[in-house]
Amino acid sequence: MEIPEFIAVGENIHCTRIYKVGGKFVKEQEGGGFGIHYTSGGEPRLLPVPERFTERADWEAGKVKHCAVAIWQGNNGDEAGRAAGIDYLQSLARRQEAATAAYLDINVDEFSTDVEERANLMRWTVDLVQQAVSIPVSVDSSNVEILRAGLDAADRGRGKPMVNSVSLERADMIEAAASAGAVVIASPASEAGLPESTEERMASFAKLMPMLKDAGLEGGAVHADPLVLPISVDGANGKRFLDTVRAVRETYGPEIHIVAGLSNVSFGMPSRKLINQVFSRLAVEAGADGGIVDPMQINGEILANLDTGSQGFALAKALLMGEDEFGMNFITASRAGEL
């Protein structure tokens, strides 16, 4: 299958992203303390974890938010810590661009509860990322002040920035995006919550799209997000999403883009990478042309080269289409090392 375009919105510079403490990346150091191991410029490097992060509840749960560590070090660390924090974030940006990301999504919402601090950090992170890559940024926040801060820092010379996201429940984001000349990810989330059925999602889009058009946002400026929900919660969620993709494409035509947080589908499941890649391929076949993804794992070339005749593909597809009750066939194969 040829995939002429896949708009990957790189999701990796995000303060919700976690690593397992004591796992592959986060290790205790011989001299004391912990560090995050990564590679930059082909060389192994270390991002020190400040003590304040080891005193948090998520650390007690065996997790650390690695981008938050990098942002803290880049702004508050000593000379070596600042250099490591900056290098870490720019390395993440460069790796995503090299994997054909079209945008880099940046979110600092979970860094702290202070809006002014987060707005300043959004500006700082956007500027830092733009020093390392040539692609535009996607500004991601639930707070319009933080969103505006990111848009103000965005360099229009590399293309229009993206707003992730606008919806009926976040209508103030529409004005912010339009005044900044941005493109938008449009979500069917509404004041009543997250729609579940295809009909509910399309009804929400039917209200949202005219609002976007009135603001001057239409056609290729809109990236519709049909909303991915985990199959571990409801085995029909994969098929509902794909049905909605088809309905959006049929209703709004070839100009509109269709993207989504495709990896959300596999939360709570084993062999997530395989599920995510198969799901992304099915989404493209249904009419999607992008996703909010890790572009090192999901991009046009990877999806085009998936072995659709393999056992793994067949089992993942059956799981995603709701044909594998409770996912037992897929889970059994995963546990047996057959995937």
Textual characterization of the structure:
This protein is of the alpha/beta class. The chain has a domain of 114 residues: TIM Barrel. Helix content is 43%, strand content 18%. The strands form three sheets. It has an eight-stranded parallel β-sheet with strand order 12-11-10-9-8-7-1-13. A three-stranded antiparallel β-sheet has the order 3-4-5. α9 links the parallel β11 and β12. α9 runs parallel beside α10. The protein is globular, with a radius of gyration of 20 Å. The mean pLDDT is 96.
Secondary structure blueprint with pairings:
Layout: E1 7-14, E2 18-20, E3 26-28, E4 34-40, E5 43-49, H1 51-54, H2 57-60, E6 63-65, H3 66-76, H4 79-98, E7 101-107, H5 115-132, E8 137-140, H6 144-153, E9 162-166, H7 172-179, E10 183-186, H8 198-214, E11 222-224, H9 237-252, E12 257-258, H10 272-286, E13 290-293, H11 300-304, H12 311-320, H13 328-335
Parallel strand pairs: 1-7, 1-13, 7-8, 8-9, 9-10, 10-11, 11-12
Antiparallel strand pairs: 2-6, 3-4, 4-5
Helix pairs in contact: 3-4, 4-5, 5-6, 6-7, 8-9, 9-10, 10-12
Taking Cα atoms only, what radius of gyration do you get, to the nearest Å?
20 Å
The end-to-end span amounts to: 22 Å
Indicate the CATH class of the domain at 226-339: Alpha Beta
CATH homology superfamily name of the domain at 226-339: Dihydropteroate synthase-like
The helix content is: 40-55%
* Major β-sheet annotation: 8 strands, parallel
Helix/strand class = alpha/beta
Residue share in β-strands: 15-25%
Uncertain segments are none
How would you classify the quaternary structure?
Answer: single chain
Which second-level CATH architecture of the domain at 226-339 applies?
A: Alpha-Beta Barrel
**How many strands appear in the DSSP assignment?**
13
Which fold name corresponds to the CATH topology of the domain at 226-339?
Answer: TIM Barrel
